[in-house]
Write a structure and sequence with these properties.
- Helices cover about 55% and strands about 15% of the residues.
- The chain is of the alpha/beta class.
- Helix 1 packs across helix 10 (about 180-200), helix 2 crosses helix 5 and helix 7 crosses helix 8 (about 150-160).
- The longest helix has 27 residues, at about 80-105.
- The chain starts with a strand and ends with a helix.
- About 35% of the residues are buried.
């Protein structure tokens, strides 16, 4: 079966998650790195225990699950903490994501690996082509504060924890402008999906 794996990444609030949802609606198989992260950090996992040892045992709730917001607050508080979190989680997430991708390749078609830290984690090695969504900081601030109910300080922490736009433009095969109205962003992404599928002989 003919397949293609598209690595989809981008700055928080730029529209990546919206495009991943659209890809799924269109019939693509989507592997969501955040969902995989929740899977590998579920209650009782060795990874969760390791994170608790580093970032504090109070990041685990009464049921043994992860307090994601508290972990994010601590992990994104300094560059060193962010890098530590990433080192601990990246390999576990990519290994599980690779298992999903291998299964979906058997079915053929377009597979999207939705991964915020695609390049930093080495997840791009699992992909045939990569696309990054970018947008100005002001646009992203408004979107994530509205979407996640964050304060301006919390939103800024998340934004500053990521690389700048040049990093994504340099690393990605295709860059999608996420600053426009979302309808246009989706149209641009749809054209990219169609072109990629045709080039790979899927359509």
């Amino acid at each position: 079966m003919v397949s293609v794996v598209i690595g989809l990444t981008g700055q928080t609030g730029a529209g990546k998650s919206t495009l991943a949802s659209y890809a799924e609606e269109k019939g693509c198989r989507v592997v969501n790195a955040d969902a995989v992260a929740r899977e590998v950090m579920q209650a009782g996992s060795s990874l969760l225990k390791g994170l608790a040892e580093i970032f504090g045992y109070d990041i685990i709730d009464d049921k043994g699950g992860l307090k994601r917001r508290l972990l994010a607050e601590r992990a994104f508080s300094t560059k060193e903490n962010t890098e530590l979190l990433n080192r601990m989680t990246h390999s576990c997430i990519n290994r599980r994501a690779e298992e999903y991708i291998k299964e979906y390749r058997k079915e053929g078609g377009v597979i999207v690996y939705d991964c915020p830290l695609l390049f930093e984690s080495g997840g791009d090695a699992l992909c045939d082509i990569t696309a990054a969504v970018t947008a100005p900081e002001s646009v992203r601030m408004n979107r994530i504060m509205s979407r996640d109910g964050l304060t301006e300080k919390e939103a800024l922490l998340r934004i500053r924890a990521q690389k700048d736009e040049d990093f994504y433009r340099t690393g990605a095969d295709v860059v999608i402008d996420g600053s426009a109205e979302m309808e246009k962003v989706i149209r641009d992404f749809d054209a990219f999906l169609e072109e990629t599928a045709r080039e790979r002989g899927i359509l």
